[in-house]
Amino acid sequence: MSVNPVKEGLFAPRETAPAGVGDPTVAVGAPVAGARPGIPRRLVLRWGLWGMILALLAQWGVQFIGFFWPKKVGAFGGVITAGNVDDYQVGDVKRINEGKFYLSRVPEGFLALWWKCPHLGCTVPWVPDAPSLDTIEPKGKFNCPCHGSQYDRYGQIIQGPAPRPMDMFPITIEGGKIRVKTGTAIQRVKADHQKDPVKP
């Protein structure tokens, strides 16, 4: 008997059932004649489907964790490289935008002053042409535009309602490079000209 290639295929039923199928005299669970030994196709498909679902969920989980615990490098909250020691002269104040601080070079060393005003959180600009509030240079001071708090190059409050000096960020100097850790601000009651600056 010839087999019709259209009807005989992967999903097409057989012309005749295998021996033993539909026979009431055959016990339940008895091996079926012509059945292929090994893992059933449905079980393989089920494993494959669950494997794809679990792989997708694992990928989403990794992205979820990476979103809520990002690596902060070169941005506010992480470590910022603010240049080389030789780039600064005594009296220089440079604004570092990505770190939200000013790097101030005083005779005793370097200070990283957070530009957030301790009074109400306004951004404090550096005014290079204003009369100085320290003896390092004749011009330059920090002047908060919100309520008039004024600070010298050490971040010390000289005039205005701010309750304390400008907050600082920790500085480390390695190989002549100045690195500032912006994750934690250091509050001060009063600026200490000897202890606060980091020596080059």
The shape, in one word, is elongated
Helix content: 10-25%
Number of domains in the coordinates? 2
CATH class of the largest domain: Mainly Beta
Oligomeric category:
single chain
Class from secondary-structure proportions: alpha+beta
Percent of residues in beta strands: 15-25%
Alpha carbon gap, first and last residue: 97 Å
Biggest beta sheet summary: 4 strands, antiparallel
Strand order of the largest sheet: 2-3-4-9
CATH H level, superfamily name of the largest domain? Rieske [2Fe-2S] iron-sulphur domain
- Quote the average pLDDT: 82
Name the poorly predicted regions.
6-11
How many helices in DSSP terms?
A: 1
Order of helices and strands: HEEEEEEEEEEE
Look up the CATH topology of the largest domain: Rieske Iron-sulfur Protein
Question: From the 3D coordinates, which CATH architecture of the largest domain would you assign?
Answer: 3-layer Sandwich
Instruction: Count the E strands.
Output: 11
How would you describe this protein?
The protein has 200 residues and is of the alpha+beta class. It has two domains: 1-70, no CATH class; 79-181, Rieske [2Fe-2S] iron-sulphur domain (Rieske Iron-sulfur Protein). Helix content is 14%, strand content 24%. It contains one helix and eleven strands. The protein has one helix spanning 41-68; strands at 79-84, 93-96, 101-106, 109-114, 126-131, 139-143, 150-151, 157-159, 168-169, 171-174, 177-181. The strands form three sheets. The protein has a four-stranded antiparallel β-sheet, with no helix packed on it. A four-stranded antiparallel β-sheet has the order 5-6-7-8, with no helix packed on it. The chain has a three-stranded antiparallel β-sheet with strand order 1-11-10, with no helix packed on it. The radius of gyration is 37 Å and the shape is elongated. The N and C termini lie far apart (97 Å). The model is unreliable at 6-11 (pLDDT under 50).
